[in-house]
Amino acid sequence: MPDWLTLYYDRPLEITHGEGRHVWDADGNRYLDFFGGILTTMTAHALPEVTKAVSEQAGRIIHSSTLYLNRPMVELAERIATLSGIPDARVFFTTSGTEANDTALMLATTYRASNQILAMRNSYHGRSFSTVSITGNRGWSPTSLSPLQTLYVHGGVRDRGPYAHLGDEAFIAACVADLEDLLGHTRAPAALIAEPVQGVGGFTAPPDGLYAAFREVLDRHGILWISDEVQTGWGRTGEHFWGWQAHAASGPPDLLTFAKGIGNGMSIGGVVARADIMNCLDTNSISTFGGSPVTMAAGLANLSYLLEHDLQGNARRVGGLLIERLRGIGAGVAAVREVRGRGLMIGVELVEPGTDEASPERAAAVLEAAREGGLLIGKGGGHNTSVLRIAPPLSLTVAEAEQGAAILEQALRGV
Edge-to-edge, what's the strand order for the sheet holding 336-342? Predict the structure, then answer.
């Protein structure tokens, strides 16, 4: 394996199996999973409805490619198109969020005949050659070479940067003014791509309505809006099914990308776009693995379970209890700068006590201590990786939320 392949923990963890919200390692240790394979095990580990759908479909046919009709792919596309909120929507399936964003960039730049892209500071959109070039987080962008010209906009981080001292309304106005000024100095870009809640960046988010205000400016210039819902989609934030719905005053995005949770661990990504945008390509294209019969069967079963059991509502209820519990803990720990988030997408930012200086060493130490206590969490952040990322499966129970909070409290106080 390459040296740059990141592993968590000083003693890397081999996960052998899981059930519900728990996983086990090769030594037989049991852990409460508050990260879900990077927000991907969205409903539960070993969910019977999903494993049954995968097994039954694998028994019929595993692979055919998009050169042949595939009923599960069409059925899932129809459901996602309807849920997306985008009028006259078309869906193209990929194998990952990176590939989904890569496809969205190709569609937008072709449609607009422009290779300029607006992106947010502190953003993350994938690891392909095009997506690292629009990632506004230096820890995840290994090259400055790019097929695109990327211009970065203020607004993705509410409580750091030159506008942090402003109230929400003034913050939005300042970010819009910055966007207007930027567009006065460049040719018209193809699109703005933005995560409603920045995932790798540490679960940061602007005030509700920022992207609606941006949309008014973008529409005047004919610029498309791509909402990167790879981490925020499918009800994780509790309050909304999609992250863009917190900014819905100006309507849905032109393109929406998704991945991670829809497959509950199976490799599914995709793009939803208006038909005129999706159909703008004038060459043939296929996908060998995108939309495969097995992954589509998993996606259908997983989406059905999510909707039938109102896991968005559970994320709102249990996530609300968890975030308040963590805020109470953070108030008594000097190294905790902020506890933020929505639903079951929560960030705990750590700093050097008494300062605003990020403390990645503390974040790494808390990650280790939480593991020793039987809890798996993630970490991320912008200038420094100092934010603990908490994103358990959306079926999390109140008792499990309380147990995880207690373990994390012990880890924070111990460090």
Answer: 336-342, 345-350, 387-390, 378-380
Q: Is 33 helix (H, G, I), strand (E, B) or coil?
A: strand
Residues contacting 381, CB < 8 A, separation 6+:
201, 202, 349, 358, 360, 363, 387
Q: What is the pLDDT of residues 274-283, one digit of tens each?
A: 999 999 999 9
Q: pTM score > 0.90 for this model?
A: yes
Q: Which residues contact 358 (CB under 8 A, 6 or more apart)?
A: 349, 350, 351, 381, 383, 384, 386
CB-based contacts of 75, cutoff 8 Å, min separation 6: 296, 300
Structure confidence at residue 143 (pLDDT): 83
Q: 66: exposed, middle or buried (C-beta count within 10 Å: 0-12, 13-18, 19+)?
A: middle
C-alpha distance from residue 239 to each of 22, 89, 306, 319 (Å): 25, 23, 15, 10
Tell me how far the alpha carbon of residue 339 is from its chain's centroid.
18
Q: Which two tokens stand for residue 26?
A: 């090769």
Q: Distance of CA 126 to CAs 48, 121, 173, 245, 276, Å?
A: 30, 14, 29, 23, 25
